[in-house]
C-alpha cells in the first residue's frame, strides 16, 4: 500500500470528520490504535491541523462511506497512475552528523571480526560508501593509524537484529558455496544468540600444546634408569674414605 502524506494529520482529520473506528483509522494511517484514541481524547497530536485525504487525492468519499457502514472494512489508498512504477531510491542509510565520525571505527570492526560480510552489506549497516570500506580493508585510509575497531551496535549505527540478519545471510552464502569453516569462523557467521548457545569444540590448552606426543609412563623412567649410571654423593664429591681418616688421626697423635 502506498504511503500517506502527513499520516498523523490525516488521522486527526478522520477522527474529527468521520465515524470510523479507531482500528480502521489506525490501520489506514499506520499508527497504533491507542494513538488514535489519544488523538480523540486530545492527548496526542495537540495543535496538529487536520489533513483532508479527499481533497489531496488519497481517499474517496465512497471509500469512507463503506468504512463507516462496515467496521471491519479496511480503507485503501487511492492509487495515483502517475506514481506507478516508481521505486524508492536505494542507497546508504542516513547517519546523523554526531555519529558520522564513528563510522570508520565501526567499519574497521566489521572488517576485522566479520570479513565475510560484503561491502554492500557493510554499507547498508553503517551508512557509508564502498570506497571508504575498501580503503579501510586495504589500510590505505588517511586516518587508519588512529582508528580503533568499535562495535557498530554499541555506537548506535545499526541494530543487533540487523547485524545478525546480515551475518546469517553471509552464513547461508558460505554454506551454499560449500566452504569448510573452523569453530571460530562458524561462531562469527551466526547470530549472537546462536553463538552463545553453541558448545565449544575440545581443544588442547596453549600451555601444553605440542607436548601430546610425550609420555610419562613407567617404561620411560625404567629405560632412563638403565641408560644412566647411578651416582652417589661420595663418588660425586670424591670424598675420602673412612680408613684414610683414621690413619691421619694416628699420625697426628704420634
Automatic annotation (TrEMBL):
Transmembrane segments: none annotated. It comes from the Bacteria. Residues 77-99, 192-254 are annotated as: Disordered. Residues 218-231, 242-254 have a biased composition (Acidic residues). InterPro entries: TrcR. Pfam families: TrcR. This is Cytoplasmic protein. It comes from Marinibacterium profundimaris.
Amino acid at each position: 500500500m502506498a504511503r500517506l502524506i502527513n499520516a498523523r494529520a490525516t488521522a486527526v482529520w478522520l477522527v474529527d470528520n468521520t465515524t470510523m473506528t479507531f482500528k480502521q483509522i489506525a490501520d489506514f494511517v499506520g499508527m497504533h490504535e491507542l494513538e488514535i484514541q489519544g488523538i480523540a481524547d486530545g492527548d496526542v497530536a495537540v495543535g496538529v491541523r487536520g489533513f483532508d485525504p479527499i481533497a489531496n487525492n488519497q481517499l474517496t468519499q465512497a471509500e469512507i462511506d463503506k468504512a463507516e457502514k462496515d467496521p471491519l472494512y479496511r480503507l485503501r489508498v487511492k492509487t495515483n497512475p502517475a506514481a506507478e512504477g516508481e521505486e524508492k531510491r536505494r542507497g546508504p542509510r542516513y547517519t546523523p552528523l554526531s555519529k558520522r565520525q564513528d563510522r570508520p571505527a565501526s567499519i574497521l570492526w566489521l572488517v576485522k571480526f566479520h570479513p565475510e560480510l560484503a561491502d554492500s552489506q557493510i554499507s547498508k549497516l553503517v551508512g557509508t560508501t564502498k570506497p571508504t570500506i575498501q580503503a579501510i580493508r586495504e589500510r590505505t585510509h588517511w586516518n587508519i593509524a588512529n582508528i580503533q575497531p568499535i562495535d557498530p551496535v554499541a555506537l548506535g549505527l545499526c541494530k543487533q537484529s540487523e547485524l545478525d540478519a546480515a551475518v546469517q545471510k553471509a552464513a547461508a552464502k558460505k554454506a551454499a558455496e560449500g566452504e569448510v569453516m573452523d569453530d571460530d569462523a562458524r561462531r562469527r557467521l551466526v547470530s549472537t544468540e546462536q553463538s552463545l548457545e553453541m558448545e565449544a569444540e575440545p581443544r588442547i590448552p596453549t600451555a601444553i600444546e605440542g607436548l601430546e606426543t610425550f609420555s610419562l609412563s613407567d617404561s620411560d623412567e625404567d629405560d632412563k634408569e638403565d641408560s644412566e649410571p647411578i651416582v652417589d654423593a661420595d663418588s660425586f664429591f670424591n670424598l675420602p674414605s673412612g680408613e684414610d681418616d683414621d690413619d691421619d688421626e694416628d699420625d697426628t697423635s704420634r
